[in-house]
Design goal:
Strand order of the largest sheet: 5-4-3-6-2-1-7-8
Largest sheet: 8 strands, mixed
Shape: elongated
CATH class of the domain at 9-202: Alpha Beta
Structural class: alpha+beta
CATH topology of the domain at 9-202: Heat Shock Protein 90
Strand content: 15-25%
Radius of gyration: 29 Å
Helix content: 25-40%
CATH architecture of the domain at 9-202: 2-Layer Sandwich
CATH superfamily of the domain at 9-202: Histidine kinase-like ATPase, C-terminal domain
Number of helices: 19
Length: about 600
Amino acid sequence: MGKIKLLPPNLSNKIAAGEVVERPASIIKELIENSIDSGAKTITITFEDGGKRLIRITDDGCGMTEEDLMMAFQRHATSKIATVDDLMNIRTMGFRGEALASIASVAKIEAKTALQGSTEGHFLRIDGGEIQTSQKVISVPGTTFTIKNLFFNIPARRKFLRSKSAETRHILNVIKKFTIAYPEVSFLVFDESERVLVYPIQTLQERLEEIFGKRTFSTLIPVENKIGEVQITGFVEKPELVRKSFGEQHLLLNKRSVTSRVLNKAVFSAYGSLISKGDYPLFVISLEMPATEFDINVHPAKLEVKFAEEQEIFDAIYKTIREVFTSDMAIPSMHETSLKPAHRTKIKPNQFTLDHQKPFLFKEAPTNKHLESPTFVKPQAPTQSRLNLTENMSDDEFEEEVISKAQEPETPKQVHNSMSGKFWQVHNTYIFSQIKSGLVIIDQHVAHERILYEKALRCFDDFTLPSQKLLFPQTVQLSKEDYLILLEILPWLEKIGFEIKNYGDNSILLEGIPADVRLQDEASILVKMLEFYKENEFKESDVKKNVAASFACHSAIKAGDKLTEDEMRVLVDELFGTEFPYFCPHGRPIVINLSTKELGKKFHRT
C-alpha cells in the first residue's frame, strides 16, 4: 500500500482554516463580507471575551433557502462565481467558498436565515464540522451567524490567541475598515452587553467625522481625480500635522480594504520630503477601477492585491495627492496651527526650585523614603564601567563616535571627576563639557529620557512616584481602542503618578499627573503616551517597559529648552547614575565623545 493518502475532509478543513481563520477578527471580517454581499443595510456585531467565547453577526440581507444554507458550509461552494472568467472579474467581497467551511471546522457555529418577505426560515448547528441540528424555524428576514468557543477542538491554536483586550482591538480595527468603506451601511457593535459603536447610514464625510472626530477630520484635505478608468477619491492629512503612530492608513479598492506595496508607496512618495522618516499621515484613499485590471485572489484572506499596470496606478495616485499639496487647500488655518505643541516657556536664570507653571524646573528630594534619586538630584555613583574617554580612531573615522565600548573602563564617578566642572549648552539642545581626552557631548532630551525611564521601572516594583493634583480635573474622551489600552495599563500609570477615574462612555477623568509633567500639557501627555504605546506594542512585549518608555519620552525636557549650568550639572550627574547611560530606551545615543586627537586631525595638526 502506498504511503500517500487523501486527507479526510474534516482534517483538510482544519488545515485550510489556518489561513482563513487566524483569530476572532478574521471570522468577523469574513462574515461581514457575506453580509455586504447579501445586500444588507444594517449589520449588528456582538462578541464576548474578545471573540474567543462568542461572535454573532446579524444582517437584514437577502437571506438563504434551506438548500443554500446547507450548501454554504461545503468547501468551495459559492454563489459568487461559476467560471474561470468570473475569477478574473470579481465584483463581490467573497468568492472563494472557503470561509464558512473553515470556521465550522474549528468552532461551534449556529446559523439562522430567512428570505426577504418570509417569516419561515431554517436553523443549522454544526460542532467542529459535524452537523448537529437542522430544522425549520420562525425567523425575521436576513441571516444570523453565531460562533462559539473558537478553536475548542484545537487547543494548540487557542493558546496562541492574545488577551481579551488585544483581540477586541483587532476586532474593532477590522470593523473600522468596513465602516469607512461602507458609510451607506448601518453598523451596531456590542462588546458583551455594552454597545460600543453605533453608525447609522451616513455620507462618507459624516462617517469619517464620527470615526476620527471633527477636529481631526478638519485637518484632512479631500482628493478627487479620474485618470483613464481609474477614479481616485478620499482624504489625506496635511503634512505638518502627521503623527508618529502607524495604523490610520486606509486603502480601498472597489470598496474593499486592501494592502498594497504599490498603493502605499505612491501615497508616501507623494508626501516626499514634506514629512520625516517615521511619520505616518492619516489617509483614506479609495480607488474604483475595472475588476479585470487587478487580482485580489492572491491569498485566502483577500487582502493583498496585484495590478496589471502597477506603474500607471502608482503615477495616478502620486500625481493626484501631489497636486493637492501644491494647492491652497494645504495651507494650515489658525485652528490647525493650534493643534501643534505650544511653544515652550523659557527658564529664567538661576531658578532652581520646583515651579509647576514652568516647563521643567528641578526639584529637591521629596520625603518619600523609597525614592533613591528624585528628579535631577545628584545620585550615588555606581561602580560599573560607563564611559571610554580615550578612543583610538582610524584615519577614515573622524568627528564623532558613539561611546558604546570602553577600551579603558572608567566609572561614572571617574568620568565626572575628569570633567572640567564647566558645562555649556549649545542651541539649547546639547550639553558640552571638557574632559581630559577632549569633549563630551550629551543630548539633553534623551539623557533625561533615560533617567525618567529607569526611575519608572524602579517605581513599578518598589514604590509609587509622587503626583500633583490638578486644580481643575480634565475629562478626556478616547476612542474605544485607546480606552481599552488605558484600562490595560492603568495600574502602571497610577504607579508613575497619574490619578485617573473612569467617567463612562470611553472617557476618563484626569485628576492628577506625575510631578515631572508640565501642567499645561496634562491631557496631551496622556494621549501621546497612549499613541506611543500603540506604536511600540509589538516592538516591546513587556508592558511595564513600554509604559515607562512612553512616559519618559513625553515627560522629558525637550530640545530647545534652556538650562542653567546648575541644571545641566545635575542632569549629567543623574545620567551617569543610571544603569545604561549611553543610549535612550529607543536605542538613540545619548553621549558622544570628540577627542583632542580628532580635533587635531580636523585642523591638520601633526
